[in-house]
TrEMBL record:
The keyword Transmembrane helix applies. It catalyses: ATP + protein L-histidine = ADP + protein N-phospho-L-histidine. This is Sensor protein. The keyword Transmembrane helix applies. Residues 1-11 have a biased composition (Polar residues). The lineage of its organism: Bacteria, Pseudomonadati, Pseudomonadota, Betaproteobacteria, Burkholderiales. Residues 1-20 are annotated as: Disordered. It comes from Hydrogenophaga laconesensis.
């Protein structure tokens, strides 16, 4: 038999969760300072490199000019010396000039490449020191072949100046980059102080201080949109939190009543011996309460799905007037009880989730039947929108709804006042919330109007889903 080792419960229960990698954070100030410092170093480096190149060209031009000038002097002096005394006079003049021009090296060759003159001991090493050289011809007074001259000048001082200048320019580049980096970091840190203030204000907000808003003593044009959006978000969060607290309280209140009835009836039934009919009556009563609780829970689950953005499934186009007639037939008994009649005006055809729309129309009719004047007529109006959608209204005559209550009419567990709620026919206050949810699932919206003894509550449906 092939067996495999199974991990023990202790080894799996105590296993450490897999490590999650978190993105590395960075400092905006440091990064910006580094980037600007690098840009400064590059910019100054290019600029000062250009300055150094121009300066080097000026040194070379000066050295070339010095070579040309001294070569011309040598040629003139040697030509005169040749005319006066020949090669001996020429050597004498060159020795005399060598004493007065340190930093130069002169060599004169005859046409046959034999050496006529060479400086004895130059003050620099022509092979090691930076030098500049120029060769020239010296015409002979006798008209023979010209002598060949070689002039070398010492450029050590210019090279030293160039090195000092290069060191100075490099130091200036580095100092400029460091100064710009430090200045940028300090400036950015000062400029980002409002963000730190906003972060501190945001940190202070919690569930006990949802009404707190963030602000700056000196509003910044770039940060104000973020502040406005955050404050708007906090306002929506606060409103949602208040609604959630109210919703939880309403749910607890709505479930407390049937639970109290169940507990009380069960305790009474168990207080003494009961006959079978009495126990059946108690069970029937408990079943009604359980069904009411189940209806509340189902409606809450449906609203939770709608809040998560679930969309209605579109079927084939449906005739809205025929769908309303089917719903009206379902409500015939309570309508006859109150002597109500229904008129259906208009029609529309569009794809929809038929069971959901029936439920919405049923909730609207039930709401209208509950609050309509006895013996009056209800009216269901169906109108086609220009974009192909549909709008449906259920109209009844009866007590008007106060204008301040209309915006909350579709909130969960909301009841305008006692005049709009019949205690002998209790309901859990989720009917119009479901209507609003079904409208949103069809990319529509609910609406309500009340005035002059007439109340109109309805919803709209889009012809096709958003983005289709």
């Amino acid at each position: 038999m092939n067996t495999q080792a199974m991990p023990s419960p202790a080894s799996t229960v105590g296993a450490a969760p897999a490590a999650t990698s978190t993105p590395c954070t960075y400092s905006i100030g440091r990064r910006l300072s580094l980037l600007l410092a690098m840009q400064t170093v590059i910019g100054l480096g290019v600029l000062l490199a250009g300055i150094y190149a121009v300066t080097h060209m000026l040194f070379v031009s000066k050295q070339d000019e010095e070579l040309r000038a001294y070569s011309a002097v040598l040629m003139e002096v040697l030509r005169e010396a040749d005319a006066k005394g020949g090669e001996a006079e020429m050597r004498h003049k060159l020795e005399w000039l060598a004493e007065r021009r340190p930093g130069t090296f002169v060599q004169v060759l005859r046409p046959d490449s034999s050496e006529l003159y060479r400086d004895a001991a130059p003050t620099f090493n022509p092979q090691m020191a930076p030098t500049r050289e120029q060769r020239f011809e010296i015409p002979r007074a006798s008209g023979g072949a010209p002598l060949l001259g070689r002039l070398v000048i010492d450029c050590t001082r210019d090279a030293q100046h160039g090195r000092r200048m290069a060191l100075l320019l490099v130091s200036a580049v580095l100092a400029g980059g460091a100064l710009v980096g430090w200045g940028t970091f300090w400036r950015v840190r000062c400029s980002l102080r409002p963000l730190l203030d906003l972060a501190a204000q945001t940190k202070a907000i919690d569930a006990r201080r949802l009404g707190q808003r963030i602000s700056l003593a000196e509003p910044a044009e770039e940060l104000q949109p973020v502040i406005d959006q955050f404050n708007g978000l906090m306002q929506r969060v606060e409103r949602t939190y208040i609604q959630l607290e109210g919703f939880n309280a309403d749910v607890a209140h709505e479930l407390r009543t049937p639970l109290a009835n169940l507990i009380g009836q069960t305790e009474v039934a168990l207080s003494r011996e009961r006959s079978v009919p009495e126990l059946e009556e108690t069970l029937h009563s408990n079943l009604e309460e359980l069904q009411r609780m189940a209806a509340i829970v189902n409606d809450m689950l449906f609203l939770a799905q709608a809040d998560r953005g679930v969309k209605a499934r579109r079927g084939t186009p449906v005739a809205m007037a025929e769908l309303v007639r089917q719903v009206v037939e379902f409500h015939e008994a309570p309508m006859e009880e109150r002597g109500l009649k229904v008129d259906i005006e208009g029609d529309a055809h569009l794809p929809m989730d038929e069971p959901l729309v029936k439920r919405a129309v049923s909730n609207l009719l039930g709401n209208a039947i509950r609050y309509a004047d006895a013996g009056s007529r209800l009216c269901v109006r169906i109108a086609t929108e220009p974009d192909g959608g549909m709008r449906l209204w259920v109209e009844n005559t009866g007590p008007a709804i106060e204008p301040e209550h209309l915006p909350r009419l579709f909130d969960r567990f909301f009841r305008a006042d006692a005049a709009r709620c019949e205690m002998e026919k209790p309901h859990h206050g989720l009917g119009l919330s479901i209507v609003a949810a079904i409208a949103r699932m069809h990319d529509g919206f609910p609406a309500a109007e009340s005035g002059g003894g007439t109340t109109r509550v309805g919803f709209s449906l889009n012809a096709r889903p958003m983005g289709a």
